[in-house]
Design goal:
With 118 residues, the chain is α+β, with helices and mostly antiparallel strands. 19% of the residues lie in helices and 40% in strands.
Length: 118
């Protein structure tokens, strides 16, 4: 009988834990990358206004690394509001700027020109 009670209690605890794990994904915390209530931001990183793009520049949104900017994936989706954009690339000075993401239907473009390190 004790073993049966233990099995029932264990099953209930596992069910509660599984519900908690599923609901934890519904919390609106963490990185600002989102696909609801968003604005589109296209980021183009160049080494000077007439030059080519810088491949694989590191992109940080509100101090969270979100990936690399490239010609193949220049558009990101961000929640509306003020965001801090930081771009780093080897051999170049770090770029940082606060921008306000306006949300749909606006598509914003951020042209970034990185200066070489001296």
């Amino acid at each position: 009988m004790k073993a049966k009670k233990y099995l029932v209690v264990s099953s209930i605890l596992i069910l509660i834990f599984a519900c908690f794990v599923c609901l934890a994904g519904c919390v609106n915390g963490g990185p600002v990358i989102s696909k609801s209530g968003v604005g589109n931001l296209e980021i183009i990183v160049r080494h000077h206004p007439d030059g080519g793009t810088i491949p694989a520049a590191n992109l940080y949104i509100d101090s969270v690394f979100v990936g690399n900017v490239s010609n193949h994936k220049p558009i990101i989706y961000l929640r509306r509001g003020e965001r801090t954009i930081r771009v780093e690339a080897q051999g170049y000075k770090t770029y940082e700027k606060k921008i306000n993401i306006l949300g749909e239907p606006n598509q914003q473009v951020l042209n970034i020109f990185l200066e070489p390190e001296k």
